[in-house]
Amino acid sequence: MSGYSYIYTIPYLLLTLFFLVLARNELSLEEQNKKTIHRICMFLFLFFFGLRGFIGWDYTSYYPAFTDWDLSFIDVNLFERGNEFDAGFSVYLSVIHLFTENYHVFIFITTLLDVILLNIIIKRYSLNYALSFALFLAFNLALEVDLLRNIKSVLLFLVALEYLKSRQPIKYFLLIFIATTFHWTAIIYFPLYFFLHKKLSRSIVIAIVIIGNIIFFTSAFSFLSFFSDALSSLGGVFELKQESYFESGDFTKSWGFSIGYFERLLTVIIILIYYDKLVEQNSDNILFINLYIIYISMFLYLSDLHILINRFSLFFSCTYWVLIPAVLYLLDFHKRKLFFGAIVIYCFLKILVTTNHIYYRYDNLLFGIESFENRLSAFYQYFDFQF
Asked: Could you write out the DSSP letters of every residue in 94-118?
């Protein structure tokens, strides 16, 4: 069996296609007629991911952890177990384990929670529900398949945005604190409360992008030693992360020049062109514009920190779910058709690149899945293909 094959991408491409067809239909519907599309999207997402077999790679740690889990949420050793998983996720696992010891039931429950939160967030901020689901697949598939802790942090943050914009710090910081107990990297969301709602002038954004490109191309400044020393000085888990990440050549290599660079540059140019119109369309868009500025800045200013971008960019790429549909609705009929066509092509390209290796060979509980042992064997056989 081949380590790479575009056959593996077919189920993901079909799911993306379904969402894009629904998105195309949604463009011509009135708001009151969109509920059926919303239900179909939720069902498709839950069916595809909630009933999945052992796909991706993080099941290699989550499956043994859940099946061997012997704690309840009142266990006094809970936060010691949190050394393996962050404390909030340990509680989460413990509560579910009280009701089931079946890993696949656990995956279904955790996917159901994800889709419920996605429904709340997308309905609140996106102009095209189905398109946001398609963009989620294109840009954040790994969040749902592999990063079971990270996705809870991201979704909790997006729910907390309601309290950021209404200036309710206690509710915002409480939700972000909970997010950090699922994955410590959500700590990056804390300072956003103080500036994410503020509109920057277009000239400042342009300056940020231009200076970032200069640093990207010339390597005029390196943040590698700065972050390495900072994490080391914090001690504890942070020092362990410094030792495992920053002292590894694979994780500290430069992000480099890629198609993704052109896509991000083109996206920020489109945002700048429609900057004022996006804010006029919906004042909430400023939150996601600022998130995108942070997102692209990470790639431009921190390009020599591969692992840092890998870990933290996921916390900001959610901006695509909102801004791309927002731009689409600002365009006239002919430009909208062209833009939608470009979205379709890029979504397919992203899915092809993401899911063309054996780790993502899809199977579903209703049609039969491979055993954990067989998938684990393939995982180790083709381990180098991931990197």
From this structure: HHHHHH---HHHHHHHHHHHHHHHH
